Amino acid sequence: MFRCSPRIDSTLGRLLLFLRTDSFIFSLVSDKNSWTFLMMEECAIDAQNIISISLQKIHNSRTQRGGIKLHKNLLVTYVLANARDFYMSVEFAGMYSIQQNGEMRTVSDEKQDSFELTGNCDDIPGEFCCNYSGDSLDTYHCAAPQSAGYPAMVPEAHTQTVPVCPMAPVRHCDLNPAMVPEAHTQTVIACPMAPVRHCDSNLLDSEISWDYYSEPYTFKRDILISNTPNNQKTVLDLDTHVVTTVDYGYLHADYCLSFKQHGQCLQGSPKKRKIDSSYVSDSDYLSDFLPMSCKQIRSEDVYCCNSEQLDTNNISNLMSVLDSGFNELLNWQTDLEQVGLVNGQTNFCKQALACSGAWTRAIEAF
Amino acid sequence: MAGAGGGGNDVQWCFSQVKGAIDDDVAEADIISTVEFNHSGELLATGDKGGRVVIFQQELESKNQPQCRGEYNVYSTFQSHEPEFDYLKSLEIEEKINKIRWLPQKNAAQFLLSTNDKTIKLWKISERDKRPEGYNLKEEDGRYRDPTTVTTLRVPVFHPMDLMVEASPRRVFANAHTYHINSISVNSDCETYLSADDLRINLWNLEITDRSFNIVDIKPANMEELTEVITAAEFHPNQCNTFVYSSSKGTIRLCDMRASALCDQHSKLFEEPEDPSNRSFFSEIISSISDVKFSHSGRYMMTRDYLTVKIWDLNMESRPVETYQVHEYLRSKLCSLYENDCIFDKFECCWNGNDSVVMTGSYNNFFRMFDRGYRQDVTLEASRESSKPRSVLKPRKVCTGGKRKKDEISVDSLDFNKKILHTAWHPQDNIIAVATTNNLYIFQDRL
C-alpha cells in the first residue's frame, strides 16, 4: 500500500524529490546521499508497480463486457504517462549520479534490473536487460529475451530471438562490443508495438534500430539472410499505417543510409504501400482498442501481439517505448534541419506522427 | 448533531423504507445503476444492471396520519433494455440502464427516457383500471366470433377492473452513438432532448427516431491526439438553448445552440486551475468530472469529481464559488483505490428542492449532505442496522488520524465495496432516495 504521492521536479544535474507521507514531508537532494538514493529506488519501484497495474487494466479491459471503456482507458494512459515520467526522472537522476560519482549500482530487484553494469546479460535469461557501462560505452545495448528455435543467421554473430511481446521493443543491440565482433542478427517473431526509437546520440551507435520485422534480418547492408524461409518481409507500422516490404532479406540501401546519417531509425524501404488511415473508422477504433492495425498484422502474416505473453517485468523497455515518442518528436525538428530529406519529407512527418502517439499506440497494441 | 436538510440546521433524517433483497449475495443484475424522481416527486424510478426499470409510487397521505408522508410502493416493473450483440464490431452491448429521465407530465400517462450504452427508449407508463366488455366480433376471451353468428349488435361498455399499470415503448432512438452513452437530458421545451457519449452529443426530437443532430463533437481527427472525453451533459432547466457538458479533464463547457449548429466552440469554459501541491500520478483521474447538475433556479451548477463537490456560478468561469470535500481522507489512498478500480467510480450528486443543500455519495454506504447556507455538512449511513422505522440517522464520522474516538470509523476500516453512487432528492419535500449496491433506501426528515 503506497503512502506517498511523489512529485518530481527535475532539473539538469539535480533531482528534487518530494515525498509526502501521512505525517511529514521529505525534501531530498539526490547527489551524494545514499539514503536518498534508496528512497528514489523505492519510488521507482512504486512507479513500476503502477505501470504494471495499468497495463494489466488495459489488458483486462479487452475482455470486459460491454466493450472497452474509452474514458477509463484514457485515464489509465494518463497514469501510465505520469508513472513513466517519474520513472525516467528517477532513472535519469540515478544515471547522472553514477556519472558524477563514478559508482556502479545495481537495482536490487533482479527481475526489474534496467541497468546492469557488468555488461553480461546471460545472468538474466528471459529478461530484458540493458548493458550500460557509462562513459566507456558508446552504444546502448539491449538484449531481448532468449528463445529457442531460431537458427543463427550469421554463424559468428550472436543471435537472439524475441518472443511475441506486445510491448517489447525490438532492438538491434550489440550486447557488448566484445561479444559481437562484426555482424549481429536479431530475429524477431513479432513486436507490433516497437516504435522507432531515438536513442541518446552519446550512447547510441548509429546502427542501432528497432524494428517490427517478423523475419530474420540484419541491420548490416547487403547481408543476405540465406536461410530465410521467405524472400520478402512485410512490416506494418502501427503508428503511421505504412506497410513496408523488404525484399530478399536486404534492407534497402536508403534505409541503412538514412539511419546512419542521423542516428534514427526510419521505417522501411521505398517500396511502400500506404494504408489509408481513414480506414480506421470509429467502429474500428472502438471495436477492440486494438485497432484495425492489429488485424492487419494478421493479414500480413505477421504475428499479432499476444498480450497474455506480456512480461510486465520488462518495465525498462516499456519506459523506453512510452518515452520514445516524446524524445523523437523533440529531436525531429533538429534532425530535419541537419540532414537532407531521405525518402521524402513524408517519412519525417510519419516519424513525428508515430512518435507523438507512440505511447497511446502502446496501449492500443494490447 | 442535526443533519443538513435545508431551511435550518435542525433537520433530522429518519429511515423510511428500504427496497430490494436482503440477501448479502448480490446478483450483478440487481445492482442499481440510476435513481430519479419525476417532476412531482410522486414517482421514483430506478434502473439496474439487468436492464430493468422499477417505478415506485408514493401513496397518498393518510388522512389519519397527516404528518406522515406516504410510502413508496412498487408501481410498475418492466424490462427496458436487453443485452445485444453487435456482430459487425464483435461487441456485446450491456443492458445496464445508465440513465433515466422523466418527461414533464402532460396527460394522465407518464413518460420517461431510459438509456443503456447505445439505445435510448421512450416509455409510456399508463394506468388501466377499466376494461371494455361486450364486443360484437370478439368473445370475452379475445377469440374472434364467426361473423355469420352475429345476429344482434350491442355497444361495448367499460367495466372496472383491478388497476393495471402498463409500460409500453413508444419510441426507440438507436444507432446514433458510436461510443458509450453517459447522459440524457430533456430540454425545457419538452420537445427535444440530448444524449451524450464519450465524444459526441446528439440532439433529438422526441417524436423523431430516425434522425438526430450532432451538436458537439470532440473526436479528434487523429485518435492518438485524444486527451479528454465527455463525461456528463445537461440542458439548462429554463433556457432551452443552453446546455453544459463536463469533461474528463475537469472542465465544464456551456454552449448556446443559437450561436451555431455545431457547438464545438463553447460559450463559457469553467475550469479551476490545479493545485500543484496536490499533483500525483492520479491527478487526471481524480479531476475527471463524473456528474454535472444545474440547480433548479438555473443560476448555479454543481459538479462532482472524485474527491469534491463544486458549486459554480454560471456568471463566473474562473473558479467555483463553493468547494466541498467529500472524502479528502482518501487522497492518501489513491494508489490502493487505483489498484482496486474504485478510483474510477462515478459518483452522482443532486440538489434539494430549493437549492440550499447538495448531496452525494461515498464509500462504506456513507452519503454526504452539504448545507450551503449554514456551511454545515453531515455524513449519514444507509445500512440495515439503522433501518428501524422512523429511526433517526446518527451522523457518522471518519477518523483520519490520531486517536479514534468512539463511534468513529477509521479510514482503513471503510468498506470500498459498499458505495453509494446514485442519490436523488424529492423535488419539493425532504425525501431522499439513496441507492446502495442493490438496495434503495428512502429517508425523510423527521416531522
Automatic annotation (TrEMBL), chain B:
<dbReference type="GO" id="GO:0019888">
    <property type="term" value="F:protein phosphatase regulator activity"/>
</dbReference>
<comment type="similarity">
    <text>Belongs to the phosphatase 2A regulatory subunit B family.</text>
</comment>
<dbReference type="InterPro" id="IPR036322">
    <property type="entry name" value="WD40_repeat_dom_sf"/>
</dbReference>
<dbReference type="GO" id="GO:0000159">
    <property type="term" value="C:protein phosphatase type 2A complex"/>
</dbReference>
<keyword id="KW-0853">WD repeat</keyword>
<dbReference type="InterPro" id="IPR018067">
    <property type="entry name" value="PP2A_PR55_CS"/>
</dbReference>
<dbReference type="InterPro" id="IPR001680">
    <property type="entry name" value="WD40_rpt"/>
</dbReference>
<keyword id="KW-0677">Repeat</keyword>
<dbReference type="InterPro" id="IPR000009">
    <property type="entry name" value="PP2A_PR55"/>
</dbReference>
<protein>
    <recommendedName>
        <fullName>Serine/threonine-protein phosphatase 2A 55 kDa regulatory subunit B</fullName>
    </recommendedName>
</protein>
<dbReference type="InterPro" id="IPR015943">
    <property type="entry name" value="WD40/YVTN_repeat-like_dom_sf"/>
</dbReference>
<comment type="subunit">
    <text>PP2A consists of a common heterodimeric core enzyme, composed of a 36 kDa catalytic subunit (subunit C) and a 65 kDa constant regulatory subunit (PR65 or subunit A), that associates with a variety of regulatory subunits.</text>
</comment>
